[in-house]
Prior knowledge:
By secondary structure, the protein is mainly beta. The protein contains eight helices and 52 strands. Strand 50 and strand 51 form a beta hairpin.
Amino acid sequence: MPKNIVSIAILFFFSFSAFSQKANLSGVLTDGNEKAPVYNSVVALLTPVDSILYKFTRSDKKGNFNLKNVKAGNYILMTSHSQYADYVDAITMDENEKNIGTIDLKSKIELLREVVIKTGSIRIKGDTTSYRASDFIVDANANVEELLKKLPGIQVDRNGAIKAMGETVQKVLVDGEEFFGDDPGMAVKNLRADAVKEVQVFDKKSELAEFTGIDDGKTQKTINLKLKEDKKKGYFGKMDGANQPFTDADSRYNTNLMFSSFKGKRKLSAFLLNGNTGQDGLGWEDSEKFGARDNNISMNMDDDGNVSYEWVGDNNDGEPRINTQNGFIKNTNAGLQYTNKWNDKQNLNVSPKFNNQIYTNNSSRISQTQVGETQLNENRSTVTNVDRSNFKLNAVYDVKLDSVNSIKFSARTNFYDTDSDEFTDGATTGNDGILKNKQQRLFTTNSDKSALSAGFLFKHKFAKARRTFSLNSSWSMLNTNSDNFLKSSNESYVDGVLAAKDTINQNKIGDRTSQNFSASFSYSEPIAKQIALQFAYQIAYDKGKNNYFTYDYSEDTGRYDQLVSSLSNEFEQTIITHRPNLKLSYNAKKINYSIGSGFGFTSFDLLDKTMDKQYKRSYTNFFPSANFSYKYKSNSSLRVNYQGSTRQPTLDQLQPLRNNQDFFNQTVGNPDLKQSFTNNININQGSYDMLTETQIYQGLNFSTTSNAIIYSRVIDPETAKTVSRPINTNGNFSGNFYLGYGLKIKKLDMRADFSPSFGYNKSVLSINDKMGSAKNLNTGLSVYLNKSKQKHYDISLSNRFSFNRNSTSQNDEIKSFNTNNLNLDIGVFFAEKWKIATDYNLNTRQKTVDFQDNLTNQLWNARLQRTFKNDEFTAYFMVRDILNQNIGIQRNVYENTISQEQNDRLRRYAMIGFTWNFKNGGEKAKK
């Protein structure tokens, strides 16, 4: 009732308008499906500048409405009805009577409370947020990454990582399909922004959940780029080349070629990237897809509040750790993608890619490790040289057999080759400065990997609605052959006096194969109008072997032919899991939920062939799951998801084999490891107000893990030698909260976004057989402001403040520090064709008790460009790191160790370049 009184009061106030040219606006509201009149719907006119209500009325029993005495001008016409989706459209009135005819309204039940918007930059339909790309100003030849930086709720950091509504984007699709595989960077860095009609952000459900309509809680934050129709006819592309002038043969250069061709439903795309400025290098996430690392990592928080990953036991491949943000890299990256559809029944997507990298880096690391009352200080320098390449092929063939049956085949291959050498020189002292050990080592690697996988999915819909059956199977294999050499000199000291010296000269040969096969079926049955039951069953079979042999060098024969039994082992594992699952789901127009549980029956069969010892054991796990979503408004929703999951120990963690690559930091496997179990709950809420252009989203995540696998460390405080061994522990948990608030400041024509965050993590640690804990608190606040005017200027200002607090049970000392990152981006156009752009980054890191160095640095880049021929050609001159302050320093806190690492970075350089952005010439001719 109060709401109606306020509406009547507003109407009464605005009914007293000044005399001017006025006219009547009329029309008819009908049901879009039944064509019946819609009675008693509010029909309102709002002023577009400030969204203030100007006039409103209600439709009569025949659906007719009539707004009288409307002044000439521009308005927003809006309808509102409890049973129909809101309708919004722009309208212009003059002094003549206007009848806009029939407006078909859509049922909220049918559209799950969809908002139908024909104006405004953002549209929300169900769980999907869509941005109209043309409403966000970017340069004429900008790529999609620059467009994403303009969209409210989306952040792109300086390393190219994308977050949407506070969550990391895992997939970027183009017209609903993968673009050169599942690497998010390929589409956003190489597609033109002006080719995109719409950017859609949503949580992509699993294929089974999309088919059955029963949510399984498995989602991936996804961006889908919908291309303009005229861009899907003919071709478009880019050719870009830049080189450092007035230098020797080792000058900086980049070449970037991109081409896309469309004919009907056939799409062909190709790219070639070549350069030595670090563009499009493989990051950690991509190398994981190649099987380069077998998950022998531990997560920790760096001093910028970012999650990073640290080796806690190298695998037997001994591959070097590479971060392409550091060092110097020459990169060649090429790919081809072909997609086609025939008769809307067959869909083929094939994408081969090739990548080669030549990488060099010099790094120095200082670390402080607290062991009781003793502090161990390590200084280490490493020179790394890597030459690696890989060839990948992804293929998907989807066939719609008829209206109720479909089959999907998928296959992936990856061939990966690495040659590297790594020289390390280091020493460790006590807190009194007395030497404890010294080491020099050279480790050379030659490894070849092949990863193969295939999948099959059959789906069937019965005549009865929501009754479905699906059959899914997958197979994968990873094979690794390594031939490595270790040469090291290791000196141990007691009271600063040399006590022992170990010299190692060994050849390490590895042969590892792991295979996985899984098969499952799912059946869903509707048991009421809004209730369905799903039964599923899965069997998974994991088979692996790891044969690793170490040979000492023989002075007599001049060969590596003396087997080191203590460093050699043949090991096999077989893990079989049976998992039945039952789930009940409820689907209504506002509320959807599902609840269910599965049971996991897992058996381990481990065989140490070298020691002729077998380990057998079985586990039974309970897998509860629950999902709840509530669409309390047409553009607002609340989502709660709970999931239980297990994680199997890796082959390296299980195999009782010692890794002596680093003499003073060795690892050994543990065949008695159990699988870990994680309980995880996510709560997410988001809403968008179309009239005020205000967006708010928040999320809460909490997880706890039982039998978590950590590395127990035995540290000798006299020699500083550490032996790590994986064990199971309890008491590990983490929690994270984020909030985002974005709004349009209309008086200033400026976009503003605010994003506070909070994270807390507790992990169990074991040092010298004493159990303890490490705790990390991280809070932060991000602010982003943007103001732009097309072909005049574009200014963005952002700031990220982070506070970190770390403590361990090893001592009472609390280590806390804050960091701040300020970014300013300015682009100014002049003389129509000219543009000068500059970006400034100020990184401030608080000094700590452990590290007194000033880590504040400034990064300043600038670019001057001139476009020709309707922006088709661009000539530019750019300077990177004008102040020559690009330093690669990172601080990490991990358990009882704090470290600071400095790496080579590409410093100040200048480049002259030319870009040709070409479009379909045939389309121009038609015009």
